[in-house]
Give the backbone structure.
Amino acid sequence: MERVKTGIAGLDKMLNGGIPLHRHVAVYGGPGAGKTSLAFEYLYQGAKEGEGGIYITLEETEEDLVANMKNTFPMFSDIDALIQSKKLEVVKPDKLQMEDVANILEDRITSNEVKRAVIDSATMIRLSFKEEIEYRQTLFEFLSLLRNLDCTTIVTVEATSPRKEAIVFDIEHFVMDGIINLYNLDREERRIRALEVFKMRGSDHSRDLVPFKVTPSGIKVYVGERVF
Amino acid sequence: MERVKTGIAGLDKMLNGGIPLHRHVAVYGGPGAGKTSLAFEYLYQGAKEGEGGIYITLEETEEDLVANMKNTFPMFSDIDALIQSKKLEVVKPDKLQMEDVANILEDRITSNEVKRAVIDSATMIRLSFKEEIEYRQTLFEFLSLLRNLDCTTIVTVEATSPRKEAIVFDIEHFVMDGIINLYNLDREERRIRALEVFKMRGSDHSRDLVPFKVTPSGIKVYVGERVF
Amino acid sequence: MERVKTGIAGLDKMLNGGIPLHRHVAVYGGPGAGKTSLAFEYLYQGAKEGEGGIYITLEETEEDLVANMKNTFPMFSDIDALIQSKKLEVVKPDKLQMEDVANILEDRITSNEVKRAVIDSATMIRLSFKEEIEYRQTLFEFLSLLRNLDCTTIVTVEATSPRKEAIVFDIEHFVMDGIINLYNLDREERRIRALEVFKMRGSDHSRDLVPFKVTPSGIKVYVGERVF
Amino acid sequence: MERVKTGIAGLDKMLNGGIPLHRHVAVYGGPGAGKTSLAFEYLYQGAKEGEGGIYITLEETEEDLVANMKNTFPMFSDIDALIQSKKLEVVKPDKLQMEDVANILEDRITSNEVKRAVIDSATMIRLSFKEEIEYRQTLFEFLSLLRNLDCTTIVTVEATSPRKEAIVFDIEHFVMDGIINLYNLDREERRIRALEVFKMRGSDHSRDLVPFKVTPSGIKVYVGERVF
Amino acid sequence: MERVKTGIAGLDKMLNGGIPLHRHVAVYGGPGAGKTSLAFEYLYQGAKEGEGGIYITLEETEEDLVANMKNTFPMFSDIDALIQSKKLEVVKPDKLQMEDVANILEDRITSNEVKRAVIDSATMIRLSFKEEIEYRQTLFEFLSLLRNLDCTTIVTVEATSPRKEAIVFDIEHFVMDGIINLYNLDREERRIRALEVFKMRGSDHSRDLVPFKVTPSGIKVYVGERVF
Amino acid sequence: MERVKTGIAGLDKMLNGGIPLHRHVAVYGGPGAGKTSLAFEYLYQGAKEGEGGIYITLEETEEDLVANMKNTFPMFSDIDALIQSKKLEVVKPDKLQMEDVANILEDRITSNEVKRAVIDSATMIRLSFKEEIEYRQTLFEFLSLLRNLDCTTIVTVEATSPRKEAIVFDIEHFVMDGIINLYNLDREERRIRALEVFKMRGSDHSRDLVPFKVTPSGIKVYVGERVF
């Protein structure tokens, strides 16, 4: 099985080498859990290795996102260069519509040799629908389209509670090929970041909950360490 | 009472020999709990013994599902051969409609000597309805149709929480003849897989919660072992 | 006060002799809790004593239900004979409508000397209504009709959680004359069956939670024993 | 302050002598908690002392209710006599409408010297409305009417959970002058009955939770005893 | 900052002297928590000091409310005198409409030198709306009106649970200037009354939970004592 | 990265120097948690340093808000002066509409050299919509507008529970650049104020829960101290 390295060493180890090629993974967690950082580093590490990536942001502007990532990862000194060379593209669609997102993706993947994509976040699209059923159908059709494209995708999904016990599975968990849960856990009056690979179709993976940090030189996943 | 062996040794023991013939069993669990693996192995083991099987996938494409299963079970070296010989068929209907699923099933069972069927998942059909009542009627009618066919079926159902305490019973639990619950439990910062036979009409069965693993050579159910 | 023996020794003891004549009792529990077995044995034991009984099944076919009960209770060797002699009748109405159920009941009770009836389950009827209010009115009218008939009825009701603490009372609990709760409790990684008589209008009754088993020779209720 | 003795010794003590005259009290509890028994004894004890009472039953028939109460309280040997002498009347309105209940009450109170009334239960009326708002307005208007009549009323209200912690207050708790909570508590695998006076406008009252029993000679409230 | 003494010694101490002048405070608690008693004493103590007060009752009749308060506070021997002298007025509007309440308040405050007002309860108005949004707008407009009047107001609000942990904040908590929570807590099978000042805009206040009692001579707040 | 000092020493330390310039932060907490005090001090401290600020109040009148803040912070003796010099402006829009809020902001920021803005609260706008979807779109568009203005904004958001475990994330948490949670925690029958920086895009920050107080000379955040 071919795999796409996320470039985050500990995470690739947990994934037995990376995300299976052409699979589509949900990164699920509450606000501040690190979803955007993880998704961005996935593209950045790919771009450094020559794999084109596109980041579709539905919440922040392109400028804010890039500025935030440069601040979050000051050691990633070549972000601007990668953007200029089109290895890394950040796009904010004019409208909050899955159709626009799909068109942009399709266009870039066929014409720009993009191999990695991020959609941040599916929740913004969900919240733009009045009826859940319409979102579900849209997401389902979008996934069908993705399955025909030559790319490996991370879709961020917002959790509605910081508590691990309060996870509620929904359509995104059912249709995506994999789920990586990010937590912002409460340990003796401190928030501790932790992650687990919850589901990965067709691939064995670590089943541990492990602490991680967002550091200036990238995300560090502490495989083998305990959270509590 | 005639029984259909699942071919998963520990599970057949828990079921007192297998699923009662012509009964229809829900395999219920959250994302990543192992529903697809269990359902696929049920068909695979039957096909190896000469019993035709059909896997109706409503989430993944046929290609992805087969690739995932070959990766999950590398020791099942004859999957392709069984597919080629039509002993094992994987179908993705064009539409998310119970009627299509029913037509495919009816057709294959009468013409292809299919004895085992899997529908993965009922939840995808549920989510395609705007009104719950329509889903219920559709499921009910579908079950009525199944009861007239010469096959023994597994229907996967998505749980909305990983916690055993949070099970909520719904229409699928009420109308299906049996329920096998799969869990992805939280044990000291590790996810542990466990299962129980929760209901099996007309048959005694184990009432234990037991750990299981998805291994390269098939699912192993550790009857008699403790989860915690 | 005249009473109808259920024929399940421990249960009759808990009920101070049986269900009060012409009263209508809900048997409430989750899937796999033993509702169908208990309701069927109630009819079977009556039929053996010469009291005609009718089982209205809204989930399973007549054939499946009888086959399942013969498998569940292999020592009840005269089930077929009782069915042939019309002492025990199993009927599946064409439609999921309370009106049909009512007509069948009325017809059999007046013409066939039926004294015991089972409706399995009220929940199937509930789920066939789009609006709760319509179900409530239908159930209420149905109960009014039942009160004019010369029979003692068990109506099964599906619980939506296996946890004893999660019981939610609803219309069936309010309008029925009695409630017997069946549980499938979690005791150290085993499911243990337990029951309690929760309500019985006009009659004293045991207020204990007691374990029970579904055995080949009938349901055994272990009065005086502890569950945990 | 004038008070109406319930005739249940322990309860009258907890109420500092009885229910304040012309006040309207909710008796709140789950199925099997003893609401009907308590409400009926309130009327029975009044009738024995010469105070006319009317029991409006919305769930059971008049015949069933009287039969049940005679079975529940075999030592109340004069129930039939009190009914014949019109000191105690049990009425089931043709329809589930507050208006009918109001008309019956108004008629009996003015013409029959009725001083005590029971409505069993407000929940049946609630469940007959499609919209909560209509029930609320109806209940509110009904209370306004009651306040102009020369009677002291008990209205039973169904709880939806047996757990004391799960009480949810609703419109009946807000508009009624008093609330007596009945519980069917879980104590080491036994159901124990307990009650508390939760609210009584314009009157001091016990604030204890106390056990009670429904005995052949009437309800016994064990003031000063502990439940657990 | 000018303050209005509630006249309840312990409470005034907790409030650092009283309710800030022209502010509007929610008294929040379940049925039987003592909301009406506290609100009434606030007016009574003001009237004794010469400050006119108006009590707008939306649940009880004027007669019942006054009778109940005379029974609750037998030592307040001059209630009738204060009512006769118009220092204390109790009004029940004909309709459950905020507009009526507003008109009455506006009229009395400008013409009768009313300085203190009570509205008991906001919940009754809420329950009279079919749509929450209409209630919110009405309450919001009503608060705007209040802010232009020369009075200091207590509005009672019904809680839906007796448990302190189950507080749910809603529109009343957001728009009112202050919140005093009253509890009817469960302590070893007794209900214990306790209160806390939860919010008071522009004023420091005690942040303790303290026990209180409704005694014949008025409410006693036991500042410095523990509840459990 | 340029930062805007809140002027609250402990908080600026937790934020690694202040709120990132041109970012928009939600201050989230229940009633009485200190949201208004924190947001106001943010403007006040800016005004003292010469940065113009505008406070848009949707709950209180301008007069009440200013009076409350002068009472809360008696040591901020120059509030009136700052208001007179237009360094600090408090505005209550005529209507509860995001459009009005946007117009006021846009106008002041371009013409008055306003650099800091507060909107108190987003919840008031939310509650003015009948449909959630409309609020979401409005908030989203409003954020888009804010992103084009030269200001750094605090938006207060009302929590619906005082319990830290009961946080529910919603649209405001997803679209805002940062979240500061304020709590009013229950510690041995006292309410203790605590805060945490939960999310801050593009910036590292403290991940501790720390106690804070609203004192006459401003908010004191006790970095390094424990709450329990």
